[in-house]
Write a structure and sequence with these properties.
- This protein is an alpha/beta fold and about 450 residues long.
- The chain contains 21 helices and 16 strands.
- The chain has a six-stranded mixed β-sheet, with helices on both faces. A four-stranded mixed β-sheet has the order 11-16-15-13. A two-stranded antiparallel ribbon has the order 1-2.
- Strand 9 and strand 10 form a beta hairpin.
- Helix 10 crosses helix 11.
- The longest helix is centred in the middle third of the chain and has 16 residues.
- The protein starts with about 20 loop residues before the first strand and ends with a strand.
Amino acid sequence: MTAKLHTYRAGQRFTRPAIFVPIMAKNSGENSGTHLKTTTLIDELRWRGLLHDIMPGTEETLEKGPVTAYIGFDPTADSLHVGHFVPVVILGHLQRRGHKVLAIIGGATGMIGDPSGKSDERNLLDETTLRHNEKAIGTQLGRFLDFSGVNAAEVLNNYDWFKDMGYLAFIRDVGKHISINYMLAKESVKKRLETGISFTEFTYQLAQGYDFLHLYETRGCTLQAGGSDQWGNITTGTELIRRKLSGEAYAMTFPLITKADGKKFGKSEQGNVWLDRKRTSPYRFYQFWLNTSDDDALRYLRIFTYLEPETILAIEAEHASAPERRLAQTRLAEDLTRRVHGTEDLATAQAASRILFGQSTAEELALLDAETFDDVFEGVPRFSVSRQLLNAGLNVVDLLASSAVLPSRGEIRRALKENSLSLNKVKGLAEDHVLTAADLLNDRFLLFQRGKKQYYVVVAE
């Protein structure tokens, strides 16, 4: 399946209006059955909802043989968040189809600030912060791409080719080839002309364009991908390559992901959902995906996972038959938590998620680290107890009464007699039971539960 060619003018975007329809075919032999067949990478990206704009000739070039492609990541923080995961996934799809991929950290362009999608000027980061962010993001990217084999991925930093370039050399060798009129026509600039844009941000597209030119010359890179708001910056690069080197390069963008209600994707009640466990714990990360709406979960399975289309279609069908089971959300949360944090952290997040629904065991509770315990029981009533008293041994009735977990000693004794009160997921507490520091979870917490959903946390101070 190939794109219909159009007469092309510089910077023109081209998107096929037709929506990719999966081709259903029959296998032969023992494993006969229905499966989905995609003919090209572009077909699959379109089916997954990962294609926004594409320059004419891009699809044909990708199908002719391996190309080198890149996506840039500006180091505005020392971690990527889930909003950055789309470009990571795109690089993965390219690499899986045999193409060479470059992840470019914007150590230089990050010092300028991209005006795309912004209504006002960015705050510039100091160089020390930028260098720290670059290193952290480079390490993260190393977890998601394959750095072995004939098409091994690479992580590069554009600071390396900008740091020794003087201002005069840049405006002579780069600025000479792009007119002011061309730059003013970019959407990212036009939207800012009324509110104001600095010369620094105005020239951002030249800096990003030079990245593409440099990678074209030194790495044979002929394709840049990015978010839909990056079209203007990317095509400045293709135009620079055409004007300066008479070369041919291509552009492709993916949509900026939103929720089904149109709201910005990637935030939870606590703010951005980060890929760094120090910023967003594996449990919170897992819960973010688990709590998505049905419509979002079905879209995100296509967008964020590498599950085969046949598998996704089967999940969609099963989810539609019993949406109350939340199969789409569960598979989404499992896949992404495993890829970002690993199998062990996924198991911990799953165990933690079962706790609030009374489906966990004392052994699973004991496996939670202090951070995950805090996350799981955030909002649960908390009380304190003297560590000194606990070290000496404290009767369970006295502890519950002194910490005011239950309103009276009579109610405490009644709950114990009814066996409706458990400690750290273990029932069978007697009135004369003595608690010590050995009962503490993570040397800090006691978890009392009454019934199925009433939890109380006692913290040793």
